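Sorry to interrupt, but I need a hand with the structure work. Could you add the entry underneath, on a fresh line?
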Amino acid sequence: MPAVNQDARKIQRVYLTLTLGNTIAASFIWGINTLFLLDAGLSNLEAFAANAFFTAGMVLFEVPTGVIADGWGRRVSFLLGTVTLAASTYLYFVMWQISAPFWMWAVVSVLLGLGFTFFSGAVEAWLVDALRFSGYEGGLESVLGRGQMVQGVAMLLGSVAGGVIAQASNLGVPFILRVAVLAAMFGVAFALMHDVGFSPERSTHPLRATRAVLSASIDNGLKNPPVRYVMLAAPFSAGVGIYVFYALQPFLLDLFGDPRAYSIAGLAAAIVAGSQILGGWLAPHARTLFHKRTSVLILGGLVGAVILLILGFTRNFWLALALLALWGVVGSAATPVRQAYINDMIPSKQRATVLSFDSLMGSSGGVVIQPLLGRGADLYGYPASLAVAGVIELIAVPFLLASRKQGAAADTAITTETAPDTDSLP
């Protein structure tokens, strides 16, 4: 059987379409989000605290929405995500107009987190199960890397457009554009996304079903040593990544010398997007250079931390852009390898919940790290906070080394499991 048959190609096209649309919608504000919050009257501490409430929302709702994806279907979860995210984004726009108090930003930021948790785990779980049902024999790194490349293209387009549009009009317009694109994505997913290779296990006792799925997910997640250690590394690596991405906007504007050059903030997000494209292309090639997947993850963590330390001492705008691009490439090349590593260690029935729990672990780091480093930026400046971020990222490396020592078969695997789930039909 060929590695990629017609059914597998169709599944990948739907996955890439969903990734493209969702990322364009999200990225309209990625380049200007911190500037938007500061323009609304929030301090650096309050702006990053609002982002922390967003990640707190992801922590709070990751597992419940993962249970929805496993119990009611990945398609249902995706559709709920588009509606929730569109509504909460519009509330952000309204609060910016009325200069809302901080507590309102905190509440709606939690709702934004809820919207994203409907996506996290569900789309990736849908893809992996559908590919396996179709008889796909190739490696997951190539598919996930291709998705990351599409995500990078979408982020490049969306973030640059968001920055330019904000500068030509105002900081609120990109938020309205996000709402419009999310509405369009609801229609696309409703027509094209169908659960394949997976049968939702609906129950008349939702609380009992939630406990059962959560228990099974913990057994296959935190109680599975190689998976557990990768998850324990996530708060440090993902938490730092969230902070750095948003801190780079005001950091680069300070270096550039024009606090209202919103297109420069969009450029920062666009460079990260371009790095994602290159990193997604490099992922399967990087995998061939190392016998173990954990080697890629450990090297990526070390190099990324060093780059942040150097960035913290950089005062040249163009050098900072180059370091930012390199940081993005390193992290992006490691991401599909990490995804493939985890997916090859968890079963289909709990896949979305386990992946959501993994995302929860990363978000939990952001809840603490963002306001901590945001306060550091208030007191000592953004460069110092970026250097500290590099030190924090290094803490993830010992956990990755511990996962490597477990000797999991997934560490050296190069193909997905291909046995179809005969309980589910297209």
About this structure: Residues 415-426 have pLDDT under 50 and may be disordered. Residues 124 and 196 are 13 Å apart (CA to CA). The chain is about 80% helix and 0% strand. The two ends are 19 Å apart (CA to CA).
